[in-house]
Specification:
about 375 residues; alpha+beta; Jelly Rolls; four-stranded antiparallel sheet; metal ion binding; iron; oxidoreductase
Length: about 375
């Protein structure tokens, strides 16, 4: 492990950092390119500030984790549906996260999706470079390292394949998808959109709303993003992080992770590991959902630690709404009252998305949308 004095010496100056970031970006080979080159130490741009590391919250070592919810038969058994609705709302209010099993997506499909995302990131650099881009507004399919590369205090140890439809009404052109993972992506997306509808129905019922309420808000002006993350084995995991602590810019997020682990959720002021469960998908609630439910449901901080094993692969699917929609979002009237007035102001998807991209991942939050 590096000594503290060595670490400080490696952090470099601001001008060095700017040049190093540009040089790293222009190589277009991401974190994996560093590993492939045989690097035994991480570049200074990846080293978290000493203050951040020293003041990091503890990881919980108790045997606790987010709830695991079985949603089998929720479509055709009223009693079972009512039971699951209660479990979902308890998990939502206590954790902001849960794992869902018996969701109807075949295990083989999940395994294939993980494998194809891994294959994309491990194919020849010259093939991947064709997708390398940082134009998140105009490009629909991008490969990159850290959307906030030039804004963050330290680069996160991961590469990403991004498919974005918030500008295209939820439609993706199959011909734009990388051939190595196109078929798996299209099948997976179809499954996840259907599962998202079921989750939104359960949440609506648990909030005392019409079953279709949240689905109409999310899917009526539909738009989504899919990100296939690749976290290479890290030679100095204690100095960096896979993904900074953050809350999602979404209504809900559905995550598929492999069996390596590393995902943590903030609970009772400690980081709690979300251990991989074979066949499970992770559901969490984003900032948009917290705003429109007027803080009834919470968007909880989570992160991914770097590890000296890997690569870790995950696939995050964000239900985000349509960027160009003129629909105004704000706290749902049925969830507010004189005793519980709106906490947040109205906004559009364009406004909250634009704000998201002006901030580093760890800085983005919803205080900007609170009523003064």
């Amino acid at each position: 492990m590096s000594t503290q004095s060595t670490i400080i010496g490696r952090e470099g100056s601001c001008s060095d950092r700017t040049n190093d970031l540009k040089a790293f970006d222009e190589r277009k080979t991401g974190v994996k390119g560093l590993v492939d080159a045989g690097s035994k130490t991480i570049p200074t741009i990846f080293i978290r500030p000493l203050e951040s590391r020293l003041n990091d919250l503890d990881t919980c070592h108790e045997n606790i984790s987010v709830p695991i919810i079985d949603i089998a038969r929720v479509d055709d058994d009223e009693d079972r549906t009512a039971e699951v609705v209660k479990e979902v709302i308890v998990a939502a209010k206590e954790w902001g996260f849960f794992q869902v099993v018996n969701h109807g997506i075949p295990l083989e499909m999940l395994e294939v999706m993980i494998e194809r995302i891994r294959m994309f990131h491990e194919q020849d650099d010259e093939v991947k470079k064709k997708y390398y881009n940082r134009d998140f507004e105009r490009k629909r399919v991008l490969y990159y390292c850290n959307h906030d590369l030039y804004k963050s205090k330290a680069v996160n140890w991961r590469d990403s394949l991004y498919v974005n439809t918030i500008h295209t009404s939820g439609q993706v052109d199959p011909q734009e998808l990388p051939p190595i993972c196109k078929d798996a992506m299209l099948e997976y997306i179809d499954h996840i959109l259907k599962l998202g509808d079921r989750i939104l129905m359960l949440l609506s019922m648990g909030l005392g709303l019409e079953p279709e309420c949240l689905k109409k808000l999310v899917k009526g002006k539909k738009g989504w993003s899919l990100i296939g993350h690749y976290y290479p084995q890290c030679p100095e995991p204690e100095l960096t992080i896979g993904t900074n602590g953050h809350a999602d810019n979404s209504f809900i997020t559905i995550l598929l992770q492999d069996q390596i682990g590393g995902l943590q959720v903030l609970y009772d002021n400690k980081w709690v590991n979300i251990e991989p469960v074979t066949g499970a998908l992770i559901v969490n609630f984003g900032n948009i959902l917290q705003i429109i439910t007027n803080d009834v449901l919470k968007s909880v901080q989570h992160r991914v630690i770097a590890k000296n094993v890997g690569p870790r692969v995950s696939v995050a699917f964000f239900f985000r709404g349509l960027f160009s929609s003129d629909q105004i979002y704000g706290p749902i009237k049925e969830l507010t009252s004189e005793e519980n007035p709106p906490v947040y102001r109205d906004f559009t998807i364009e406004e909250i998305t634009t704000y998201f991209f002006t901030k580093s991942l760890e800085e983005f939050g919803i205080d900007h949308f609170k009523l003064r």
